[in-house]
Amino acid sequence: MSESAPPAMGFFERYLTVWVALCIVAGIALGHLAPGAFRVIAAAEVSKVNLPVAALVWLMIIPMLIKIDFGALHTVSEHWRGIGVTLFINWAVKPFSMAALGWLFIGILFRPLLPADQIDSYIAGLILLAAAPCTAMVFVWSNLCRGEPHFTLSQVALNDSIMVFAFAPLVGLLLGLSAITVPWDTLVLSVVLYILVPVILAQVWRRALLKAGPEALEGALVRLGPLSLVALLTTLVLLFGFQGERIIDQPLVIGLLAVPILIQVYANAGLAYLLNRQLGVAHCVAGPSALIGASNFFELAVAAAISLFGLQSGAALATVVGVLIEVPVMLSVVRIVNDSKRWYEART
Q: Using CA atoms, how far apart are residues 13 and 193, in angstroms rounded to an integer?
């Protein structure tokens, strides 16, 4: 395996849907059986940042960020059309389309069916979910659609670089447009904690490993891969333990929140895929481009929602709904991309 190529999928990644489903069920069950324990965990926070969730997010994303070679940004020109399409979807379409869909469905169409005091919070959660392009899971989706690894790495590196500077202003703008008060201090703290610091730590660690040779980096990625997935699954247990009672008590709310999320995932994936086809981009680039354009950095969204609005907020619930449908929906997009390859390459 070359330094820039993502490692092959292991046992846990191959059956990720199964593990996610089991963790969701376990989290909801434990939330009902031991609500006191989850209340203690929920209370372990400093400056509105839940420490257990923050620690798990770090364990989850730092191993993924170590894969990213920011030096790969010089290869952006090799796939400039695919990069351009994905950037357009990630930063000019997805956040604004989600804000519009949230306002339309949650703010207007579904308003009579939802708790009135949580409407703004639900919309805020949807905005947080869409405002950051996926980082960690992109490598899994790209592997599944046989994507070009150099494109995937350079796209993720570029998106993460942009996210450091653009996430807070973009979220602030969209929350402001939705007439939601922006807690700027907590928002900036979330960016520092969940984007800037992990990126810096991961790159320092990556460089230290590379000094010992490419084999050291590859060995570390193999060892850290299970840790990252265990942290992801543990996070899911915690999140669904926190929200378990609300999920069972409010199935209608969960279903209604899922509507705008589903629409934006399929619409953005389809738009990215079609634009790449129109521009003559190779399928091995168009596939991951569509998947990166559709998926969300739900780890960041959940952590930011908890920091900004609290564990029991509608925003936290909305981001958890994003987690609930992320894996099965993205796997369906992978299936569509793979099954349509012949059609895609038959463009006139």
A: 26
Task: Determine, yes or no, domain membership for 26.
Answer: yes
Interatomic CA distance for residues 314 and 56, integer angstroms:
22
- What would you measure as the largest C-alpha separation in the chain, in angstroms? 62
Q: Which residues contact 96 (CB under 8 A, 6 or more apart)?
A: 174
The CA-based angle 100-292-198, given to 5 degrees, is 100
**Whole-number pLDDT of residue 324:** 79
pLDDT tier, 9 (very low <50, low <70, confident <90, very high otherwise):
low
Q: Is residue 2 situated within a structural domain?
A: no
pLDDT of residue 281: 92
Please check whether residue 104 lies inside any domain of the structure: yes
Tell me if the pTM is above 0.70.
Answer: yes
Calculate ∠ Cα 51-36-56, nearest 5°.
Answer: 25
C-beta contacts of 29-34 below 8 A and 24+ residues apart: 29/244, 30/237, 30/241, 30/244, 31/240, 31/241, 31/242, 31/243, 31/244, 31/245, 32/244, 32/245, 32/248
CA angle 247, 64, 154 (to 5 degrees): 115
Alpha helices in 250-282 (DSSP H): 251-278
Locate 271 and state its tokens: 């738009």
- Please state which of the ranges 108-112, 178-182, 292-296 shows the lowest mean pLDDT: 178-182
Q: Where are the beta strands (DSSP E) in 176-324?
A: none
Rounded Cα gap, residues 102 and 108, in angstroms: 9
Residue span of the structural domain in which 114 resides:
11-345
Q: The domain spanning residue 252 has which CATH number? A: 1.20.1530.20
Query: Token pair for residue 110?
Result: 């579904």
Is 1 domain-assigned?
no
Residues 282 and 136: their CA atoms lie apart, in Å, by: 23
Count the domains in the chain. Answer: 1
Give the Cα separation of 265 and 271 in Å (integer).
Answer: 10
